[in-house]
Amino acid sequence: MPNWVTNKISASPAVIAAMLNSDGRIDFNTMAPFPGDDKWNGISMAAEEAAQIVIGAPLSDHPLLASLEASNRSNFDIKKLSEECFEQFVGMLRNHRKCGYLHSMDFARKVWGTKWNACDQSHDVDQGTATFDTAWSCPEGVLVALSKRFPDESIAIEFADEDIGSNCGSFTLKNGVAVASDIAPEWRNQTEEMRAKWKAFAHKVKGTDPADYED
User: pTM to 2 decimals?
Assistant: First the structure.
């Protein structure tokens, strides 16, 4: 299970409204849609591996994973792909040629900054607020894309990881650029004073009670 990051957005009603799909839900596809074609029922790892070999995708930065990936690639036989996987492999190559991404999850990880859409969401268009959770990180890429659509508007973002005091902070975007930013350093680089500050900030953003986190 991922760590869930709570994101709180403050902006004009027009910006908040632009975050919503036709069903009235916050939807990253309305802000940063995948430009390729992805109609498969799930992603085939074999098809993805074949496509990665063809496009020369780099191996993982992690030595052990890189070793496993290199071994799998050296033993790969495209003739062993099922017909369905082969068609998906071809589709991934078409996507890569068109937009540089193999499939929508590849796009989400690299552009959205999180592989899943907004969860546990709420919003108030009239008040100019929206709150939602994302896996592992704040979806900065989505918010930058939204900001560029409203170049004269300021979008204020606060985010906090469930690992209280780590991976949290605030920033303000205007025309896709951060014009203000206050981000927590990595936990191991924080002083006791900084840890107290960022723990209090994270509890406020997530709406959690510090007493529940006491040893």
Answer: 0.85
